[in-house]
Design goal:
- With about 280 residues, this protein is an alpha/beta fold.
- The chain contains nine helices and seven strands.
- Strands 3-2-1-4-5-6-7 form a seven-stranded parallel beta sheet, sandwiched between helices.
């Protein structure tokens, strides 16, 4: 093993941006530890160390961290906690508490499991990346569970940046816009300024290398959301009630229900006409 080789651990690396990040870091000469539940999907990452476990199982996450230590991993230069999920609440009046719990558990509680297990394995001078979402800039219909979970990630990253600074560990939160994936191809609404997973990977890796605290892209899209967020909230609510607003999707999806990617359809009339079951997406 090359002890000078940089090491990165990526959760949700079975597909989409997680997979693309793993491929790109491999191409850059990094030693990549690719995490997910789908071993067959992870096997396409030739040269990576495939770590198969469920992020929502705290015991499994702890066991994986222990195994890494026992096998001589001397610390990571970078940990990217990218895994998550999304489900939509189609009828807020009949609020689905079980759905809400599932999303919060996967996107926030499970991230806490990973933080507990993997922060001690980050080297001094290393960096931690948390997958957030540009959905946190504005409230979107049907996104109560997903948006709340990602708002939690946003705050979590901000607090960790303060508390990990004395340990010389930097923290970045990643807030993507629309990214083209097989699942987002099925969306029946406009996805403005959509990027490829390759373009998203470039933006994320650049931001992590530069130590950017909040990596959001594409800037034309995310800055527009931030600008709208400064307007009176009543105006945004009226826009949502009268027009079709496609808020965002962070990451590409795959069948391993552990990586976060989301598209939230926000047209009230469309939702009334097409009351579909909430989709789960993952990257």
């Amino acid at each position: 093993m090359n002890t000078s080789q940089k090491k990165v651990l990526i959760t949700g690396a079975s597909s989409g941006i997680g997979l693309q990040l793993a491929k790109d870091y491999l191409a850059d000469g990094w030693q990549v530890y690719a995490c997910g539940r789908n071993q067959q999907a992870l096997s396409q990452l030739s040269g990576a160390e495939a770590l198969v476990f469920d992020i929502t199982d705290n015991a499994a996450v702890k066991a994986q961290a222990k195994a890494l230590t026992e096998t001589g991993v001397d610390g990571f230069d970078l940990v990217v906690l990218n895994a998550g999920s999304c489900e939509y609440i189609n009828d807020a009046h009949q609020f689905d508490a079980e759905l809400f719990e599932r999303v919060i558990r996967t996107n926030l509680i499970a991230m806490g499991y990973c933080l507990g297990a993997f922060i001690p394995l980050i080297k001094s001078g290393g960096r931690l990346g948390l997958m957030g979402s540009s959905a946190v800039y504005l409230p979107f219909p049907r996104a109560e569970a997903y948006g709340a979970s990602k708002a939690g990630v946003q705050y979590l990253a901000s607090s960790l940046a303060i508390d990990l600074k004395p340990h010389n560990i930097g923290v970045s939160v990643i807030c993507p816009g629309f990214v083209k994936t097989p699942l987002t191809d099925k969306n029946d609404f406009a996805m403005p300024m959509q990027l490829t997973s390759e373009e998203a990977s470039v933006a994320i890796r650049h931001g992590l290398t530069k130590g950017v605290r909040e990596i959001h892209f594409p800037k034309r899209f995310t800055l527009l959301l931030k600008f709208i967020s400064l307007l009176p909230r009543s105006l945004w609510e009226r826009i949502n009630q009268t027009t079709e607003v496609a808020p965002h999707t962070d990451l590409p999806a795959h069948s391993d229900n552990q990586a976060s990617s989301t598209t939230v359809e926000t047209t009230d009339n469309h939702l009334k006409n097409k009351p579909e079951e909430a989709k789960k997406v993952s990257q």
